[in-house]
């Protein structure tokens, strides 16, 4: 599987692809510096990194120099050559939704063997799948029409097609055509 990377700058008249190689960045600061120098002092830019059929990352440099990062699959990013760039985000965990309340494990002692088997099945269903955990700023483009809940829903619905999610974000924000042309 191959990687696709692109940096797009918003020139006010729309986004344009920049002649910058994301692979040259050693860490997030390097990537942001590359984005800033290519986009100009007041410009906005987005770096897109995709690993086909597995994960994507979006890095947004806002006009006020705020940096937002969204990663669709933390475990996959951690195993990728881009792990160093996103090192600060790999231990971030989604906090947009409240965790399930803790179960009362004392009640299980009173259940018969059949009920305990049902509980074991239930526990298996609730096992955490770290491979499908997103991280970073789900509200990365909430001010441009992609609310956090919508982005998370897209990631969860189209986990095996990260390009589809990136295309959806690009359509809404306005960089889809330039991103597709860069492919």
TrEMBL record:
InterPro entries: tRNA_Adeno_NH3ase_assoc_put (IPR023869)
Annotated region described as Disordered, given as residue ranges: 97-121
Top-level lineage group: Bacteria
Protein name from the UniProt record: Putative tRNA adenosine deaminase-associated protein
Species per Swiss-Prot/TrEMBL record: Brevibacterium linens ATCC 9172
